Amino acid sequence: MKSLLKLFSLVLVFGAPLSFTHLALAQADAAKPAPAVAKYQAKSPKLNRAQIDKLLTKPEQLVFIDLRRPDEQTKIGSFPVYLSIQLADLEKSLAFIPKDRTIITVSNHAGRALRGADLLADKGFKVAGAAGVQDYEAEGGTLSKIVPPAPKS
Fold first, then answer.
1. Which 3-state string (H, E, C) describes the chain?
2. Distance from the CA of 90 to the CA of which of 30, 37, 121, 124 falls in 20 to 30 A?
3. Is 8 part of a structural domain of the chain?
């Protein structure tokens, strides 16, 4: 019994500092900031209102691809004529995108649009750049709003 008591005492004496060290290390790890997520570095340019308006002078050579959800398009507005393809479906929809036109991809602030523009450019499409409709509107541009039909009563 005495030897068991001595063993227990030794475990307490030598084990306690180890458990406190482990606790201190865990707290130090928790206090460290999370590693920063790398920001997407687009190859395509983000277009401003003046650049978009210049491209709009030749609409027959242009196609807008709006990568937002339909509810975003309805709520915020978009350019007068566009293809509506969500970013997740863009690669599956390449066959429906005209290769003979210059493409501007569209999202709210051009985040999704930059990813889409890069994808299309990598696939051989002629891409002018990406546009953020809310940025375009903030710079004085006019968006077209689609008013959804009233629900049937």
1. CHHHHHHHHHHHHHHHHHHHHHHHHHHHHHHCCCCCCCCCCCCCCECCHHHHHHHCCCHHHEEEEECCCHHHHHHHCECCCCEECCHHHCHHHHHHCCCCCEEEEEECCCHHHHHHHHHHHHCCCCEEEEEEHHHHHHCCCCCECCCCCCCCC
2. 37
3. no
